[in-house]
Sequence to fold (315 residues):
Amino acid sequence: MKLNSPSFSIVIPVYKSSKSLERIARQVIELQEQENHQFELIFVNDSPFYPETCRTLQALKKQYNNIKVISLRKNEGQHLALLAGMKHAGGDYIITMDDDLQHPVREIPKLIRAIRENKNVKAVFAIPAEQQKKHHIIRRIGSFISNKIDVYFLHKPSNLVKSSFRIFTRKVGRAMVHNYNAMPSFSCLLINTSSNIINIEVEHDARAYGRSNYTLTKLISLTLNQTLHYSSLPLQIMGVVGFGGFLFSVFYIAVVIIRYFVHGIPITGWASIVTLICFFGGLILLSLGIIGEYLIRIIKEQQKPNLDDLIDEIL
Fold:
């Protein structure tokens, strides 16, 4: 049966995956029959030069009528892939999930009920139950630090946990596509677009194939990018530190002058001079570095691509 106006669009960025895609498609069809919902399944191929993924997606497109395949020109990253898929989604609600089967299709009805039963809720993040959180200690520490940065720098509600398994309204999705910029965190863009977001707990399965492409280095880079892109607080902090350094230097100069006239100063002072030069020189360099980061992001914002320009083919 061909679906002309699906109620729910499931957008899945695909990166070098093939084995899991058939299972996802089959499970969505089964869920559609069980729940009597209409689902549109949008696979966004973010690895267009990976032949096995391309062959699998083409076969699925021929097999199922409710599947749409969007192939990007090159690897653009998960966030732009999601936005490209959302721009071509026709559902009243948009669901995003990963392609590795960690987000069970069987849990989608929980997201649907959560957003429909809460009238003021515009988005829902699905998080694993507490007993299923089995990340490595370093990953947990990184997530804790990232969460604190989101709270203090990006004004994320402290009790809200971000997740790549989520549902939101079509209106919110359209606002995100309209307001996207070249270096966003998708979750932060969603948080900034809608303030009515809640968490629900769902089951998470073990990764069926491969391993996560998000290394610790990539997570640190993502946190840094979203902090500098969405918040001016680091620049404000540097302004306060710079002003404090100026006041300290004035105070120190006053102390030196008073000591010179009262006690006299021998021709030494080499250590204090070098210390001051290094301290304020480093402070200036750090300030210039942060200003430079902002300037880079301003330039990239002016050069942000049109989402349609990222797409090579839509099947």
